[in-house]
Amino acid sequence: MRDVSQIVGTQAPGEVPGRLRLDRITKVFGSLVANDQVSLDIDPGEIHCLLGENGAGKSTLMNQLYGLLQPDGGQIQIDGVPVRFDNPRQAIDAGIGMVHQHFMLVDVFTVAENIVLGREPGTAGVLNLRAARQRVRELSRRYRLEVDPDARVEDLPIGVQQRVEILKALSNDARYLVFDEPTAVLTPQETDELIEVMRALRDEGRAIVFITHKLREVRAIADRITVIRRGAVVGEAPPSATESELAEMMVGRAVSLTVAKQPPRPQGPRLQVEGLTVTSPDGVVVVDDVSLDVAGGEIVCVAGVQGNGQTELAEALLGTTASNRGRILLDGADITRRDPRGRLRSGLGFVPEDRKADGFVGSFTVAENLVLNHVESFSRRGVLQLGRIEENARRLTEEFDVRTQSTTTSVASLSGGNQQKVVLARELSRPLALLVASQPTRGVDVGAIEFLHQRIVAERDKGTAVLIVSTELDEVAALADRVAVMFRGRVVGVVDAGTSREVLGLMMAGVPHEEALAAASVTTAAEEEARLEAEVAEHVAELTGHEPQEEQHG
C-alpha cells in the first residue's frame, strides 16, 4: 500500500490516465453488509452517476473513498496504484473532494474562513484573511459561483451554502469530486445551476461522482450510470435509459412511476388554518401568519426547500409544537388548545417526518405499533385484548402489504418502506377527518413509494382532507390537487397542481406567484426564440452547405 504523497504522477502500465478505481470494496456493520464487493471506475472528464435507493450503500461507499470510513475488504487505486485513506486529510491530499449531503460548514465562520479552514494562509500563526478572501473571489469568478467572502455562513440561503461547499472542495485542487445527494435542499433553478457547474468541471478534466436516487436528474447529467441495490452493483445503464428502466434496476422489478387518480371532488373545507404563527425556542418566527384550507376529498401539498417552516407547521397541526397566535379548525371545531391525543381523537391522522424518532417504537412488535395511538380501543377495564390486537395486525399487514416474518417481529428489523407502511396503516386504520403526512416517502424504496401514494390517494377519495408536506417536487406533482409554497415561514401562494416546475421553483425562492409567472413566461419566450434561431441556422446550413457559425462580437 503506497503513501498518498508517492502516487502523484505515478501510473501503472495499461491504466487509463488519472483513473480512480474502487476494487471489490466491502464494508460490514455487525450483521449488515453495507457494501458487497463493489467495483467502480471513476475517470477524468466524466460524470459518473451512482444511482440507488436510500439505504442502498451509496454514501457508505463514498465515505470510504473520502477517508471517513475504512473498507473491510478490497482496495482503492489511483492510476493503478493501491492507496489507503485513514482520514479525510489524506484523501484531500490525493485530490479527492466531497460535497456532503449535510453541509460540513462552521455556521459562525465567514465564507472565506470556512474555505481555508485547515489550510489557512499566513505566517507565524497569523491568518492572512486578505489572501483567503482573494482565493474565494478567484474561485467564484472561475466557476461562476458568486458568493460574498465576508458573509457569515449562517446568514446564507441553503443554495448559497452549497456553493461554499463546492468552493471548499475546489480550493484544495480536487481532481475527483463527489457530490452526495446535492439537490436535496435546492430549488429547481438551483439544481439547474448546479448541473451546469458540474458540466463545467467535467469539461475541465475533473472526475465527477454524482450520488442520487432521483431518476430525472440522472438522465439529465450522466455520462455513465452505475446502479447499486442492497449494497451491491447490479449493473450499468446508458444515459438514454428511460426512468422506468432505471427504476426497475433499482428495485429489481417493474414499477409504475405515475399515480393513477381521478380528478378531486372537494366537499368543503375540513381543515381551516387561520393566521397561525409559531416561534422557535430561541425566539425566531418559523411559521409566520399562515392561513390555509384543505377540503375533504382533496390533497394539498406544502412545497418548499427544507427548513422553511414546513416541519413546524405540521407539528403545530398535531399539537407537539405550540402556536403563538392563530386558530386551527377541524370540521368546524376549534382544536387549537387541544393536546395531541385530543386532536387524534378528533379525527387527525399524522405521519411524522422522522418515522424512527416519532413514528414508531423500534423495539415494539409490528402488532404493538399498529395500535400505539389508540390502544384504548383494544383494552377492556384496563386489560389489553391481545387477541384483537393480533387480529388487527394480521388484517393491516395483509391490507398494506407489510413484508414481515411475523406480526411479533420488531419494527426496527423491517426495511424503511415496510416501517413506513406500518405507520401509515396505523393512521388509516380508523376514520379520519384529516391526514397530515410529512415527507411520507423519505428513505423509502421506489416500489414502496408506488404503494404509499396509492393509499394516500385512496384516502382522499374517501372524503378525507389530506395535507402532504414534501420537498420532492416529483412527489408534489404526482399527488397534489393544489400546492401551497412556503418560504421563510410564510405561504408565498397556493396554486393549481398543473403549475410548472419553473414557477414553483421561483416561488420556493420567495418570488410571489404573479411575479414568478411573469418571470417564467419571459424565460419561456427567450428559450423559444433561441430554439427558432437554431432551427433557421440549421436550415440555412442545409441550403448553403455551410456549417452555422457562432456570432462574433467585437
TrEMBL record:
CDD domains hit by this protein: ABC_Carb_Monos_I, ABC_Carb_Monos_II
Source taxon at top rank: Bacteria
Main location: membrane
Pfam families assigned to the protein according to its UniProt record, in alphabetical order: ABC_tran
SMART domains the UniProt entry points to: AAA
Topology class, membrane: Peripheral membrane protein
Stored InterPro entries: AAA+_ATPase, ABC_carbohydrate_import_ATPase, ABC_transporter-like_ATP-bd, ABC_transporter-like_CS, P-loop_NTPase
UniProt keyword terms in alphabetical order: ATP-binding, Cell membrane, Membrane, Nucleotide-binding, Repeat, Translocase, Transport
Domain ABC transporter stretches: 20-255, 271-513
Entry GO CC: plasma membrane
MF-aspect GO terms: ATP binding; ATP hydrolysis activity
Compartments where located: Cell membrane
PANTHER family for the chain: CARBOHYDRATE TRANSPORT ATP-BINDING PROTEIN MG119-RELATED, GUANOSINE IMPORT ATP-BINDING PROTEIN NUPO
Protein name: ATP-binding cassette domain-containing protein
The species this protein was found in: Auraticoccus cholistanensis
Organism taxonomic ancestry: Bacteria, Bacillati, Actinomycetota, Actinomycetes, Propionibacteriales
